[in-house]
Amino acid sequence: xxxxxxxxxxxxxxxxxxxxxxxxxxxxxxxxxxxxxxxxxxxxxxxxxxxxxxxxxxxxxxxxxxxxxxxxxxxxxxxxxxxxxxxxxxxxxxxxxxxxxxxxxxxxxxxxxxxxxxxxxxxxxxxxxxxxxxxxxxxxxxxxxxxxxxxxxxxxxxxxxxxxxxxxxxxxxxxxxxxxxxxxxxxxxxxxxxxxxxxxxxxxxxx
Length: 207
What we know:
By secondary structure, the protein is an alpha+beta fold. Helix content is 18%, strand content 31%. The protein has two domains: 11-90, Phosphorylase Kinase, domain 1, CATH 3.30.200.20; 94-204, Transferase(Phosphotransferase) domain 1 (Transferase(Phosphotransferase), domain 1), CATH 1.10.510. The radius of gyration is 17 Å and the shape is globular. The relative contact order is 0.13.
């Protein structure tokens, strides 16, 4: 069952409804907020439009929307206005980094978690699926692992790879076709040292 969402929305882009002032995360060129799509709560990633992002919108949306795996966050809808692109993703309750926050931090995740072996297997399965589609994630870190909890508790906890907007096509030679991104603290050693584009093998060492 989806969580209740306020009806005071001021934006509607391709059926994605949201309050333009209601953000819970911001970066340099993007932000994250909650909203609804088809009556269900979603997480909306808003990215500032540039010449490059405007030209790549169609192919990127089609590629990401086709990703269907229990350990990859599902992209439900995408749309633009004059200044931003909006991606509506399935809603998850928390991210992995929130598990390690201090006890007095209100953002800390205190819910159940699977056994650490199951966590590793889930994340490996999601990453293997991304690679099987000739893609690489490119930004592996705890903030991009989301925790989805079912109503039955620990048995339904699912870990999902997020931030698929940084996912890139890989060539037949397993090299990213655009410049590698991501946080240096979580880059594969060979990418950090050699300053090369990412590859399918590099994702195995990140994080």
